[in-house]
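Subject: for your reference before the review

Hello V.,

The reviewers asked for a structural picture of the protein, and I figured it would be easier to keep everything in one thread rather than splitting it across files. Below is the amino acid sequence we used in the manuscript, unchanged from the supplementary table.
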Amino acid sequence: MSSKLGRGLDSLLSKLPESTNSETGITTVKTDFIKPNKYQPRKYFDPDKLLELAESIKENGIIQPIIVTKSDEDNIYELVAGERRLEASKLAGYEKVPVIIRSISPKEMLLFAIIENVQRENLNSIEEAKAYHQLMIEFDMSQAKVAEMMGKDRSTITNTLRLLNLNEAVQEMLIIKLVSSGHCRAILQVEDELQLSFAQKIVEEKLSVRKAEELAKTWGGATPKRATVKTNRKKGIESRLTEKFKLKIKVEERSGKGKVTFHFKNQEELDALISKLEEK
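And here is what came back from the structure prediction:
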């Protein structure tokens, strides 16, 4: 092969999105050719920690390759695991990153992303709850199956999923750590329309979880026994309906009357709900 032809091939290869090390089997891919994992449950990255990782990568390089899979688009890869490393590498000025290419199913992509983040405790409580809910919706899994797959008690999965019944403003307070998951268990004991004011009370007075649980029993003027029984009954109904329909469900009841609200995010979830309701 002439030197001119060799240089021509090198030039062509340099324009490709990937190159593979024949000794290690690890492929190098241009960061512009890697798109995010659409199943990634993690939505928030601590900017300070991301900068710390970027500095470490500048100093030591990328020690652990990122896992990707080929997408339907030509020369484009989809991230499976390692989004934080990828983003930090970009901050560090890397145009290419080492990757391991795997051929995996959408279910495996979601599981990879969830397991990586849960095991490393990278998800906040709401992201974790949404990840479990996504598993149930996307793959028609029960809470028991999710618990088995994640190696957790079913009660842990159930309690985490219950956080999705929180007022959205309260969910945000949990994400930014104004309140804890323990506080949120107390907040879930009060009526939906009172959750935000109760959460604000907890923050303003810096209540402990125990104090919050005691106050929840009478928040809004309800008697302790009545409030607890009513809340437990409603949450029990919501839990059973969520298990059956694999959707977030809200039950509102007053004096024996009320409504049940099904929350769906897309046409597929609505179609699935209608099919279940039409089952005999």
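For the response letter, the relevant points are probably these. The domain at 124-271 is CATH 1.10.10.2830 (Arc Repressor Mutant, subunit A). The radius of gyration is 24 Å.

Happy to draft the paragraph if you're swamped.

O.
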